[in-house]
Amino acid sequence: MSFPVSNIDPGPPGKTLRVIDSHTEGEPTRVVIAGGPELGRGPMSERARRLREEHDWLRQAVCNEPRGHDAMVGALLCAPHEPDCVCGVIFFNNVSNLNMCIHGTIGLVATLRHIGRIGTGIHRIDTPVGVVTATASDDGEVEVANVPSWRHAAGVPVEVPGWGIITGDVAWGGNWFFLIENQGPAVGFAQLDALTEFTWAVRHALAAQGITGADGGEIDHVETFGPPGDPALADSRNFVMCPGKAYDRSPCGTGTSAKLACLATAGKLRPGEILRQASILDTVFRGRFEPLPGGKILPRISGRAWVNGEGTYFLNPDDPFAHGIPS
Ligand code: PYC
């Protein structure tokens, strides 16, 4: 399915990539099913590092303009390293690799079903941060059992220029999140510009003040919550700022996992109880958790994806932007 390309150089001129597009509750995923670089064998974390350091052209060709846009999340379909997995996957966006991506996993499952690689049922998927398990139902719903998640720190104050002291929790849900409740602009679509400005300022303030996840992990996602638009449909509405300054159109599965970890640790949600998390577009993920030893949880997030395109990309040597506008 894939062909080898040389290291570091701008990629394979004159070759093609095969991609399948989907969106999960509004957030796009572009899965590269053929034509990606040969990353060898070994753990997905190792192959993700190789993709980032030696073949970053793929990310830029797929996610950046002129083919992509800021909100695009790419996914490279790989052979798995862990046994019994249906595939491996490496996610990336407009600025770098992503550790984990739940909306992308739901999109990947829809894509694998579309090309006949899997059917309904339970599928293990190998990722750079561990194996996740996806359950695909007849009605198109996909539930992802994520990697173990936990609240790292509660009520952390950060001085945000122009906004004052903002207090939030730091949690891991497959990526590092700073979670803010009822502070800053109201969480609604009409406030998109203000929410972008606010969460981006928080992200920079966290970095400037040395506030990190465990082992110095960069907090590259900021999530702010408010009441739901319609309490009959959701319990809360969020706005999630992603690492490349695009907001998540979906409710963000890793962010919902991080929120479940905070609610579980604060005793505000019981094991098995459902949290209906709405996005800024009022699309909804359902989340629940099982407790794990050591104060961690196993989050389960469900939502739906729709395949909405297939493509062949030409990496034409005459095209100055064959590998995207660099970022
Ligand atoms: O759904 O986990 C997610 C996600 C992360 C970044 C964008 N979406």
TrEMBL record:
InterPro entries on file: Pro_racemase_fam (IPR008794)
Domain of life where this protein originates: Bacteria
Coiled coil: none
Gene3D superfamilies registered for this protein in UniProt: Diaminopimelate Epimerase, Chain A, domain 1 (3.10.310.10)
SUPFAM superfamilies registered for this protein in UniProt: Diaminopimelate epimerase-like
Recorded family membership: Belongs to the proline racemase family.
Name recorded for this polypeptide: 4-hydroxyproline 2-epimerase
Species per Swiss-Prot/TrEMBL record: Haloferula sargassicola
